[in-house]
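$ fold --in a.seq
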Amino acid sequence: MRLAACASLLWSLFLITPSLAADPPDGITLTIVPGADPAAVSLSWTAGPGGPYTIYRSAAGPPNITPVHALGTTDALSWSDAPPAGGIFFYMVGPVPFWTQDVSAAPPDPQSGAIIANLAAAGGFGNGRFQIDFSMNVLTADASAPFQSFHPTGDFFTPDCDLAPVPVPSGGALEGESGYGCAGGGDCHLLVLHQPTDALYEMWRADITGGVFNGGCLAIWDMSRIYPPSGRGEQCTSADAAGPPIVPLLFTADELQAGAINHAVRFILPNPRMQAGVYVRPVTHAGAPSGQGMPPYGARLRLRGDYPLASLPGEGARVIARALQRYGMILADGGNIALTAANDRFTAAKWSAVLPGGSTSLAAIRVTDFVMIDGGNRIPLTYDCVRNP
């Protein structure tokens, strides 16, 4: 499935012992020096995709890449350790995209309790319940797809947005539309993964009508790159208000059919239920939040680990819930329908088969079933975008 591949392309993993090394990721030359203790080892490597690098260890076989397995993180190019007998399986992982970070053991934000309580008192999720929106269409374009230039509208912002031709595959559709015309007055996101270049094109308020292509903010993402914490740029928006890519945070019917969602999920809240004037990592911008004591843009909420999954109506709902326990959901925009999934028009599996309960399959989950993980420093919102190279 292509959506899962977007994330897997961005991190590298390899197994070593003092006597055996698999081929390291491209761009890295690894040196292994066994210690006097057969279980001890020193590692050194050349710069690859760039740090920080995280070292993991397991007593036998590949571990899950979770905080409990981590020995530490370093910006250096070496590591030494003397694990207990049998603990000789090491893993070195370079920077990972924020959406594949396992946060199941991450500490809560110091303000988590108050924020969750305030959000619950304000009505919780939009529409008062935990719903799923299936309107996003994710398109793939091969080498035959034509590139089309667009006319920027008032929804295009400089320097936040990219002005470049966009691949437009035949038979595609915008968010909430049956084709490329933005007839319904919605956000009309155009989401296209260009396979030959592994570039993700995401546009807000696209409209191609009568051969004329008008477009709002376009963000082009290099899916082979690990972006810095400030993404495409500090204080910069994207096709999503918060500034991150959209597609890697959408879950699909194909993922539910396969039995796992291996990434965080996009979620939204009404503007009065988001903290005014700030945002937190992993995002770089905020829309129009107006609340006080509320989750900031970028807040990552994690479903409590002891939530009774068996009480949910079917395995599809449990697959989503397990992802919310392990990877969480990231606040990316304003609106009323909390979770965002990809439409099944362009997937093999169909929502009616893998999630019979539809948009209300998770309605039993409440805001109070979540914790906000530590978001770090609140970043004051200035709207003064400074793009990264």
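$ fold --in b.seq
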Amino acid sequence: MNQTFERIEKHLYCRQYQTAGGEWSTLYYVRFKDWNGKHRAFPVGSELKTAREELRVYEARNIRREDFDADKEVKHGLTFSEWAAIYFRDKIDPEKRAGGIDREKRSFKALEPFFGAMELSAVTRSKVMEYRARRGQDPIVRRGKIVQGKRLSFATINRELAFLRFLLNLAEDDGIIERAPKIKLPTEKDRKRDRIASDDEYQALLGYMRRPAQRVLIGLFETATRVNELLRIKWDQHVDEKAGFIRLKADETKEKKPRSIPISPALKGVLNELKAEQRKIGSISNRVFTNNGRPILSIRTAFELAREKADIQDLHLHDFRHTAITRWSAMGIPREIVMAASGHHSIQIHDGYVNIKEKHITDAFSIATALQHSKPVESTSVVSY
């Protein structure tokens, strides 16, 4: 793991490290020799202002000759549920997106029945392996109903365990446990998902949705955005109708780079419809995608209901990002342009989203054959300048 560690000022240090996903994170530490001559190190958050305030608190405690080890004695007995409650209340990175927090809460909900009452120090690698084995036998449950014949996906369990590992590492950083267990997650590289929505599936889903959810699905199909990216766009900040682009800022994308997405005719129609509707009934926000003027926060339930009615198997909302990128590539748009519009800066990651099917091959060869056998342009009809 790439990381740097530097002194900011007396007793205050900054650690910057690169996560497995390639993103850089910052954590500040207070380090000093206490009144009893013992070296101390305390993590004090990811914001410099907060870190400086915490430094003053620790310096004051040291002047009062407080027992810093007493903090550990109180914290050591924390259960997984208690630690997660502290995390969600006090320790969430303010820059983390709402969608990321929602995923963490879903992971915690799955982890809690097994680990909830367990003290953090009792969470071992063998317990993690036991959880994976048990969880792998659980059926998929949608809206309280078991989906017959379907087990939880490998990726779902991996995400849950990734959150468990994150909380345990955080507990180690905070001195609550001596050492977090090493949780190695099996790679998902060989389990690349290549599902995209066919034209028939897309039309079927639209047919079973109400118009507010339809408009969001059209947006996903036309832009290759992630759901949380699309639902957050605002008229004055992101929609450039004159130039014909949806523009996302670097800090609003997973890749941390700005993105310009062309407004297709279908998306243009949706935007015009939304604008006209919001003028009539008023909007309580500046968000683009609304329902009766109120921001749409999710279409997950509407999508799952439509998918069930259309009898479509194994299709996720995120698959529409794959669908859009594949469609653009099949249209012959150069790879560099598709990557710019989708936000990919790695060819390897990008190619994983391009899932060419037989229909794309058939269509491409049909067009090429038609062009090859088309009647050549007569030389007399060519205008010379």
